[in-house]
């Protein structure tokens, strides 16, 4: 049967403290006995030496007046707690015995009188007439300095053991009461521990900690857990990377959040206590992020907060890519809508039996479309790129702008360094910008010229328009995120994406004026993969309107 952690802990505590009490009891029993023997030895010696110097007793012993000795010693015995008091003469014979008066005249028992008869006090444990006893003997010395007798004061070891046992019993009773209190404490303590660990077993806690650590490190977003005092408890690797923190996690743990992230309103304690927040745009140090803050509550008591955040630029980039896909789908919808209109027109002519006009209409519509389709399909091997160019051409015609493809256009294979998704994003953004710039110019709208050429050395993409050009006030910042001259919509990311994709593969961008008006964007993406072309900085590039 599997025993729970609470029962294991309770039993362990009880067994440990019970064993500890047993060891302490044995030690205390021996220590009490030792101390009692020392105390009784000193007491017996003092009594023996004090009795030995009593003048009346000394005189009676010198005269060997047994009756006088007995009368005097009975008074002394009445005031002593000794088990026995014995008086002997200088020959080792009994003159008085406090318990057995019939031994008077007989030899002292124990064979330990030699040193005493030489004038030395001794303390020994010997077996006498009453049994084993602790006894102290002192010499009785007359005025001339001669040993004339012996005083022996003793305590039976059985009496000492009885005293020791009484003390130990008292301690044992206190220990039992303490042990009972310990049982109660251990039970409630283990219940409290179990409650705090949510009834989990140690193995489950260890597994949970490992899972939490793995999960925290696998989260792409930055995660910081702080306690109610705003001290960092947990921070994952993504958060350290986003905030460019070089310290290891163990050093960051315990620091206040203001020591790691420069103070911002997002970490204002009054606001944090008031409510949680989601997807709030903040600035953590030098990074613009989208952050969320959620309180951690346990039994309606605040334990801290969990902060999650992500680089806003990444979200904006993803949004721009999705917008590009949306525009690509929109182009296909426009082509479908335009084709339906043509089919409806043709159907009407056929119903009116205007066959000659229908034929001329088909020829007129298909001639340009077929020419463009043949040109694009013959010059570009990628179906996705062909679909994009056809869709952009149809969209441009709807807006009154024509796309003019350079006869040198040629891309019969995929670019080695640039992925198809990035290529579609670059060309799509360039064409959208050129079409919109041309549309905003005065009529008549001149065509947007397009060159896409892949040779052995590099991929060249060039889009030239006769639009409104680039405002000189922003010409040095057109590739920065959020910079735009458009009036509405999701803008300010297209050129940033283009610059990001091109520089990542070691390419370069040139922007120049298209006299008398408009702009030419020229992109050069290396194909050989040897030494990349140097990427001009904003200051080095020739950005012109």
TrEMBL record:
InterPro entries in the cross-refs: 2C_sensor_his_kinase, HATPase_C_sf, HATPase_dom, His_kinase_dom, PAS, PAS-like_dom_sf, sCache_3, Sensor-like_sf
Membrane-crossing residue ranges in chain numbering: 7-29, 168-189
Keyword Kinase in record: yes
Membrane topology listed for this record: Multi-pass membrane protein
Subcellular compartments: Cell membrane
Top-level lineage group: Bacteria
CDD domains in the record: HATPase_DpiB-CitA-like (cd16915), PAS (cd00130)
Keywords on record: ATP-binding, Cell membrane, Kinase, Membrane, Nucleotide-binding, Phosphoprotein, Transferase, Transmembrane, Transmembrane helix, Two-component regulatory system
Alphabetized GO MF terms: protein histidine kinase activity
Start and end residues of each Histidine kinase domain: 422-529
Reaction it catalyzes: ATP + protein L-histidine = ADP + protein N-phospho-L-histidine
Designated name of the protein: histidine kinase
UniProt organism field: Kosakonia sacchari
């Amino acid at each position: 049967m599997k025993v729970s952690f609470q029962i294991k802990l309770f039993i362990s505590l009880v067994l440990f403290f019970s064993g500890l009490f047993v060891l302490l009891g044995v030690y205390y029993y021996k220590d009490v006995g030792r101390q009692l023997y020392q105390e009784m030895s000193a007491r017996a010696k003092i009594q023996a030496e004090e009795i030995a110097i009593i003048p009346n007793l000394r005189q009676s012993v010198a005269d060997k007046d047994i009756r006088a000795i007995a009368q005097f010693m009975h008074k002394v015995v009445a005031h002593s707690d000794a088990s026995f008091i014995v008086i002997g003469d200088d020959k080792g014979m009994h003159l008085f015995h406090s318990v057995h008066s019939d031994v008077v005249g007989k030899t002292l028992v124990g064979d330990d009188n030699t040193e005493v008869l030489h004038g030395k006090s001794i303390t020994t444990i010997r077996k006498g007439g009453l049994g084993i006893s602790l006894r102290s003997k002192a010499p009785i010395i007359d005025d001339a300095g001669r040993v004339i007798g012996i005083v022996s004061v003793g305590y039976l070891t059985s009496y000492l053991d009885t005293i020791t046992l009484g003390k130990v019993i008292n301690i044992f009773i206190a220990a039992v009461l303490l042990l009972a209190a310990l049982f109660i404490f251990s039970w409630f303590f283990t219940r409290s521990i179990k409650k705090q660990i949510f009834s989990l077993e140690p193995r489950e806690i260890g597994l949970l900690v490992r899972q939490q650590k793995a999960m925290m490190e696998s989260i792409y977003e930055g995660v910081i857990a702080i306690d109610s005092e705003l001290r960092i408890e947990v921070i994952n690797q993504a958060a350290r990377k986003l905030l460019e923190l070089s310290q290891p996690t163990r050093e960051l743990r315990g620091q206040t959040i203001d020591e790691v992230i420069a103070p911002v309103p997002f970490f204002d304690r009054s606001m944090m206590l008031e409510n949680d927040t989601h997807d709030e745009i903040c600035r953590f140090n030098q990074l613009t992020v989208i952050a969320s803050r959620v309180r951690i509550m346990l039994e309606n008591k605040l334990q801290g907060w969990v902060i999650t955040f992500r680089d806003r630029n990444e979200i904006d980039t993803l949004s721009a890519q999705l917008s590009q896909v949306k525009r690509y789908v929109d182009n296909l919808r426009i082509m479908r809508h335009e084709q339906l209109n043509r089919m409806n027109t043709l159907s009407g002519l056929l119903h009116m039996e205007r066959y000659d006009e229908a034929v001329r209409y088909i020829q007129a519509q298909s001639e340009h479309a077929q020419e463009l389709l043949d040109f694009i399909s013959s010059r570009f091997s990628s179906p996705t790129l062909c679909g994009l160019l056809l869709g952009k051409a149809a969209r441009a015609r709807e807006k009154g702008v024509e796309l003019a493809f350079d006869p040198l256009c040629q891309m019969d294979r995929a670019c080695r360094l640039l992925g198809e998704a990035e290529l579609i994003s670059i060309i799509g953004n360039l064409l959208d910008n050129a079409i919109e710039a041309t549309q905003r110019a005065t009529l008549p709208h001149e065509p947007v010229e397009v060159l896409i050429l892949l040779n052995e050395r590099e991929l060249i993409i060039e889009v030239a328009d006769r639009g409104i050009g680039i405002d000189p006030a922003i010409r040095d910042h057109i590739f920065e995120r959020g910079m735009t001259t458009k009036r509405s919509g999701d803008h300010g990311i297209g050129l940033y994406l283009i610059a990001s994709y091109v520089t990542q593969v070691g390419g370069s961008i040139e922007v120049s004026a298209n006299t008398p008006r408009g702009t030419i964007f020229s992109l050069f993406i290396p194909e050989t993969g040897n030494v990349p072309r140097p990427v001009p900085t904003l200051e080095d590039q020739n950005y012109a309107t």
